[in-house]
Amino acid sequence: xxxxxxxxxxxxxxxxxxxxxxxxxxxxxxxxxxxxxxxxxxxxxxxxxxxxxxxxxxxxxxxxxxxxxxxxxxxxxxxxxxxxxxxxxxxxxxxxxxxxxxxxxxxxxxxxxxxxxxxxxxxxxxxxxxxxxxxxxxxxxxxxxxxxxxxxxxxxxxxxxxxxxxxxxxxxxxxxxxxxxxxxxxxxxxxxxxxxxxxxxxxxxxxxxxxxxxxxxxxxxxxxxxxxxxxxxxxxxxxxxxxxxxxxxxxxxxxxxxxxxxxxxxxxxxxxxxxxxxxxxxxxxxxxxxxxxxxxxxxxxxxxxxxxxxxxxxxxxxxxxxxxxxxxxxxxxxxxxxxxxxxxxxxxxxxxxxxxxxxxxxxxxxxxxxxxxxxxxxxxxxxxxxxxxxxxxxxxxxxxxxxxxxxxxxxxxxxxxxxxxxxxxxxxxxxxxxxxxxxxxxxxxxxxxxxxxxxxxxxxxxxxxxxxxxxxxxxxxxxxxxxxxxxxxxxxxxxxxxxxxxxxxxxxxxxxxxxxxxxxxxxxxxxxxxxxxxxxxxxxxxxxxxxxxxxxxxxxxxxxxxxxxxxxxxxxxxxxxxxxxxxxxxxxxxxxxxxxxxxxxxxxxxxxxxxxxxxxxxxxxxxxxxxxxxxxxxxxxxxxxxxxxxxxxxxxxxxxxxxxxxxxxxxxxxxxxxxxxxxxxxxxxxxxxxxxxxxxxxxxxxxxxxxxxxxxxxxxxxxxxxxxxxxxxxxxxxxxxxxxxxxxxxxxxxxxxxxxxxxxx
Amino acid sequence: xxxxxxxxxxxxxxxxxxxxxxxxxxxxxxxxxxxxxxxxxxxxxxxxxxxxxxxxxxxxxxxxxxxxxxxxxxxxxxxxxxxxxxxxxxxxxxxxxxxxxxxxxxxxxxxxxxxxxxxxxxxxxxxxxxxxxxxxxxxxxxxxxxxxxxxxxxxxxxxxxxxxxxxxxxxxxxxxxxxxxxxxxxxxxxxxxxxxxxxxxxxxxxxxxxxxxxxxxxxxxxxxxxxxxxxxxxxxxxxxxxxxxxxxxxxxxxxxxxxxxxxxxxxxxxxxxxxxxxxxxxxxxxxxxxxxxxxxxxxxxx
Lengths: 761, 302
Prior knowledge:
The structure holds two protein chains of two kinds.
Chain A: H1 25-40, H2 47-58, E1 63-64, E2 75-76, E3 81-84, E4 93-96, H3 98-107, H4 113-126, H5 128-136, E5 142-144, E6 152-154, H6 165-184, H7 191-219, H8 225-241, H9 249-263, H10 271-285, H11 290-306, E7 314-318, H12 325-342, E8 348-353, H13 359-370, E9 377-380, H14 381-392, H15 396-399, E10 402-405, E11 409-412, E12 416-417, E13 420-425, H16 426-434, H17 461-493, H18 497-501, H19 506-509, E14 520-528, H20 530-546, H21 552-560, H22 567-575, H23 584-607, E15 612-616, H24 622-627, H25 658-667, E16 679-683, H26 684-689, H27 691-703, E17 708-714, H28 716-724, E18 733-735, E19 740-742, H29 748-755
Helix pairs in contact in A: 1-2, 1-4, 2-7, 4-5, 5-17, 6-7, 7-8, 8-9, 9-10, 10-12, 11-12, 12-13, 16-17, 16-20, 17-23, 20-23, 28-29
Chain B: E1 3-13, E2 21-26, E3 47-50, H1 60-64, E4 70-73, E5 76-79, E6 99-102, E7 104-107, H2 108-116, H3 119-125, E8 128-132, H4 140-151, E9 156-161, E10 179-183, H5 189-196, H6 202-208, E11 214-220, H7 228-240, E12 244-251, H8 275-288, E13 293-295, E14 298-299
Parallel strand pairs in B: 2-8, 8-9, 9-10, 10-11, 11-12, 12-13
Antiparallel strand pairs in B: 1-2, 1-7, 3-6, 4-5, 13-14
Helix pairs in contact in B: 2-4
């Protein structure tokens, strides 16, 4: 046995640290005590009354004052205890961030310890995820998010909700209240649901009032004429949206932003669709100049950035199915310009495009990408809409509302749930299988009750694949069950009232989003280690079954000892053909693995009561983190080394150039899952000198069925220098997987994984 | 000839003609340019290559040759490539994969199947296939059936030539080749003698190519061939031959390869031009008003 130590992942997908909270610890504690006392007053059967009462404790107290230079308001701090949707801002439902509580305790005077301990004690029993974990973890098989010892990771979260902002802006707050009231007579049994929605909207008005007060007070101080005008405009907008629907882009932005903040939603929809008309109206009436509009968008970008969600903060522009395409395109172009100027890692600025789109938009996108900002990320409607129709069983118009959230999972904006509450490590699974169920990382048995053949009994590769299928089926089925349970647990605890109001068809049905309200109750399953698993399968096929270089027991032995004394065999394994080079025999195994997992995952939806449950191959940096606890594999990868990101070749394994790499990627079907991420890296010199040819390269890839592309423009020497001298490269931005980050903020092995990706120069 | 001797097939080749291309590099060249950036392309036979960075000192190669031409120094094999230029049996002896063979014999069908993988990219970008080397012309009897096959797919074909054609093969290529890349190496005989060991007159080729589009490619080596006579010659050629559609100035790169192999040329390393020098070259073009000259993919405006 080899003694192994796991490099601790302390950040839990938190690459950029957040600003310290505005309120002092004592003030935070006071709010959290009141929040907890309020929570205690209600039972689960009064979950909606409880949610409203708790939200009334938080809002508007948790908003921090506006910053100098802000053109809009709504900076919001998530306390260690509170209400949210996603793990990157607070946590889902009623939550307690125990890690943050411990830190707070260490900062505070001893006299507060009892109070803090009491809070922790209470929330150990009532935190939404704790409740879920209590009944759903499986020893050595399903672990909590992100415990990399397990082959399967599960969680209860409510990620990736996109709200129907058009509904909000078309109605305004009072209009929405009226709409909900009109449903009371149609669905009298939903009175509790409707009342909670109305109360939530009234609380939103209270939050607008709070900000009106703030701006009014600010206006009494001395300031420049320009600043004064900005604040007067803001005050007008706030006064208007307090009850009426907005008439300007500022008002529309402001209303949707405050709403998102209160809902705990961190992806901001098809912004050009809901703001395009307001923008064009402002530009034509002379209310805004183009430059002022860009300034306003930049102010919005700063508010998004400061949340530092790392893997969320999506803004979508472009694509089919926008209400007023012409006006939306105007917003789209200014937003690309703002993104290029901002050079920030959030928003994760995303362009949907299609054959026939205004070509100027793609040109602007290429210009922005060439600066190294990694944005926009490109999504191909001509592939993705069909895939969504097929996999979510919806019509064309509905599928046009697909949006990638977080790292790139597809969801129907304003109509669907698609949170990824299960992750499976396909490579770790394979290494377990090779060693008859025993993980060579920690020497635990991880096949649960599954009865599989011993490796020394297997005589053909097909037989081997069959065992792998059985193993993965067990993991997938366990995951599906947990995923469905996560919805039940969340629904028992909360209604996600704000999200429900702006999610079809909750208002009409009189039901909360997870209680039968949502039009499409889907979910996604994140796969990791796909390509290393495929490369490893090829190595097993070739070395053990085709060429008889090794027996299965010999392979077990070599891998168990991390190739010690068998460096020549390791070199042989590394030299074998790898995915990403357009080589049929190895690409075929990646195709097989993708198709098997996609199919088997999709088949579980009906069994566990979901409208869809789909594979996503969208990795953030967990491919590296999970690799740290994954044993040596037959592709020549040594224990602890990163795994490849999503469907991309193992870093540096693609040696036949970008056409070969993209051809391999295109072979992985895009119409049987709900999102994948594809990385490509160019040197700045290459990208700029060969722009025309690279555009043709992208265009061909998209015509061949490529669903999306994330483009890293870097100078390889800069990456290497930044690895050794981070202080010299604070601004260097890279696309990791489904998120962008400042390179120097990443863990060293994540940096290495990115550095070693093939750079087309 | 049923098989061609290839030393590389490069996909997504963007510097050997228009659009996205696949370039097939043929092995074997009659010239010995000192600045050759592909010296492994010179020999017209399969050659052994050795990558010392992979060696872990296992001595298996040393034992295999009984110490002839290989010595173990600091626990690493040092291989005399002059002795082992063609000892390709060493490839299977080394467990670390230090040895490989430069040059692979490939059939028309094998090459075509690789080329066709990127056909969509050629079509989208107006690209195609380039035959380069080495001196591809030397293997024309193999390229001819290959080119015919590729023409069935209407692919644009480019031939990269050094200007040295003692066999008089060039006219045989006219039916199949759409574009020629012609090297211009120097303007003075003494430079030819010293660095190339052969004197060439580009006009001989250009006369033959009168009816074909030609791109001139001019490697510029600071203080070696970048004299005013060279720029004068370019101006005259471009002026005289309307079929020269473009001239690419190629700034010398010091490309050091970790592989070792027997060198057939008197390789030297030259100065890499800085941006000031490049700007001087651009000025040479501007003052002579030579049309359609590019450097680093940018047109030098006159």
